[in-house]
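Sequence decides. Our protein:
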Amino acid sequence: MPAKRRCLVLAAGFGTRMGSIGKRLPKVIWPVFEMSLLELQVRFARTLGCDEIYINLHHQADDILAHAKTRVTFKDVKWLVEKPDILDIGGGIHNLASQSHINYQGELLILNSDQFLWFTSQEIETWKTAAGDWDALLFTLSVNSSQGYNQLSLDDKRRFRGVIQNVQIPRDHEIETYSGNALIRLDRLLRSSGPSAFFSSVAPPTQKVMTAPLRKGRYWDFGTAARYHASMQGIVKSVAENQVDDFVSFLLSEGSFDGAKLDKIKQCYGCSVPGLINLSSDVPSLRHPPGVILSGASHEEGTRPVLVYQSEVQYLD
């Protein structure tokens, strides 16, 4: 009988990179058009054949749970609220693994809540076979070193040997970085409790930590206010120009992107103002600056890209 595959969506962070709006609206429930980031990650996990889905929480946990109660997607999700202290990624994984009904058994898929890098359950099985004997399988992403990512040090068999800090890497080089997504064999973990880092207690170089490269191509990052805005605008552009990838196709099939709200000519959503994505029920003025209205009404005129949440106005440059 195959090992049960569980999924942990990491949602316990503080959202500090989301600016002033992030202090009021937890990053994981920022809307990607008609659904939240967290809701989409849960739906993605289900496409990957996960038997059980867990979400860990800490900062703004009550707000996230209140959101979940309004969405049927979260009906069977299990919540792990970390308190009084946040456990870090490694500690969060061990907290799940130590639950009495899991007891460090089965496979655990790790998904970041604020990025989407597309892969399938069939690809996971292929990577597992190619890796041979493994304790953890890290999904890697090819990026340019000038983007600020750290590099994974790998041997000729793609076994993880350590992390090279970005400041030590020459500029404008292609490197492999950890995508934040991984598959863990819980029965291979050395048991631990309390806060711990991922590369210390889950995937240290001393274990059989193998790597699998994700397909090259565009990935969608919502991890900062600026990246959220850029990704939202990019999705509108890709649909308007009929250049959709796997993730955008997923948004369309799941009903997270409502094609009836798209103006292809003006490349706007929910209104007729060029460059504006309106996710509220209010109609913005024609002179509203480009950006995203997450909720609330329009505000004073301007030309700089902007995010609006209720009474909070956050300019991006």
Summary: The longest strand covers residues 174-185. Residues 225-315 form one domain.
